[in-house]
Amino acid sequence: MTTRTDDVDHELVRAAAEVARTRCRGDNHTMAAAARARDGRIVTAVNAYHFTGGPCAELVLIGAAAAQGVYELETVVAVGDRDRGVVPPCGRCRQALLDYYPELRIIVGGGEGEGEGQGQGLRAVPVAELLPSTYVWADHQLDAE
Q1: I want to staple 86 with a disulfide (CB 3.0 to 4.6 A). Which of 15, 78, 114, 138 is the partner?
Q2: Nearest 5°: phi and psi at 125?
């Protein structure tokens, strides 16, 4: 079931927008992501663009969270640099986020200026809703004997 728009974590959107505005410079870092940990902390990250396929901000976020001892995330949002606003995760990130955090909510929607926390059109949806007929990696792993 989709979460109501008024349940969007606007503080999280503002945190990602601030990182995008202040840390994304040039072509190497064009996206920022922020996540709300189960304990309330906010973890942020930026992408590491590289012609060989560098990781998206959401993938860097998974590692940054673990490096800070955060293993349970509740909500994630990605925001583009140059005031592009909230940007939904790509397919690879959707799959990785689902595998790491099956109960995760993703903030999507909006458009121009949404990264500034205006909130129009934003909604938080379960990550599984972004992947119809979901492949769950953990369901296909052999049990270690």
Answers
A1: 114
A2: -125, 150
